[in-house]
Recover the amino acids of this structure.
């Protein structure tokens, strides 16, 4: 299974904002223990690059990627540190071109038809729908999907345990992203058991929903 397939199979991408890089391995362990061996470490803090490095080293089986990548320089840093996929909140052709040249999976953000068209021009078919809830949520996703057959989305922004299932039900949803299961507060407090609990809860929802889908 390639990286994208693994993310799609897992169904949820935990979006992490981490302030202390040395908490990365413990966090990764908590996610794996909960049944979700993947993490998107966002470049919203100075600790991101080092956290990716430490996680990649300590948990090579976990799929670690970088999020909130706003420039080619950040993408380079992330990949050098061990990131195996790149996520951006928007569509920057420079970041996409660099990733494609390096053969690094990239999930750029798109919240409008124009952005989806820009992504299609680069032969990308899996896009982050961001900020999902603020950009129109499920009705917007359905409207986009109606004209862009074949495009799959990773809705992110405002997804929680309470609306996760509603998104997962949609055929154009590849996976969802969110920070609800990895709150920065819990990471800072070292409350990794609670992160595992939230992860187990999310994984159970994905499994139940997908089993239902198969039964139909
Ligand atoms: C992101 O960086 O992808 C989003 O800000 C995550 O959104 P959330 O915090 O609402 O899950």
């Amino acid at each position: 299974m390639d990286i994208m397939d693994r993310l799609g199979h897992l169904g949820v991408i935990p979006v992490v904002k981490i302030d202390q890089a040395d908490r990365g391995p413990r966090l990764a362990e908590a996610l794996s223990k909960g049944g979700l061996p993947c993490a998107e470490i966002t470049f919203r803090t100075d600790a991101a690059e080092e956290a990716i490095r430490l996680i990649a080293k300590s948990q090579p089986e976990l799929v670690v990627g970088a999020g909130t990548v706003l420039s080619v320089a950040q993408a380079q840093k992330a990949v050098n540190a061990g990131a195996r996929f790149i996520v951006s909140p928007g569509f920057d052709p420079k970041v996409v071109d660099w990733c494609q040249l390096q053969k690094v999976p990239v999930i750029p953000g798109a919240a409008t038809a124009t952005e989806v068209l820009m992504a299609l021009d680069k032969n990308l078919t899996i896009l982050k729908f961001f900020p999902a809830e603020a950009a129109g949520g499920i009705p917007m996703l359905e409207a986009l999907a109606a004209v862009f057959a074949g495009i799959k989305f990773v809705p992110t922004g405002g997804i929680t345990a309470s609306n996760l299932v509603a998104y997962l039900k949609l055929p154009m949803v590849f996976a969802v992203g969110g920070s609800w299961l990895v709150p920065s507060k819990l990471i800072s407090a070292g409350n990794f058991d609670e992160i595992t609990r939230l992860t187990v809860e999310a994984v159970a929802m994905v499994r139940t929903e997908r089993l239902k889908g198969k039964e139909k």
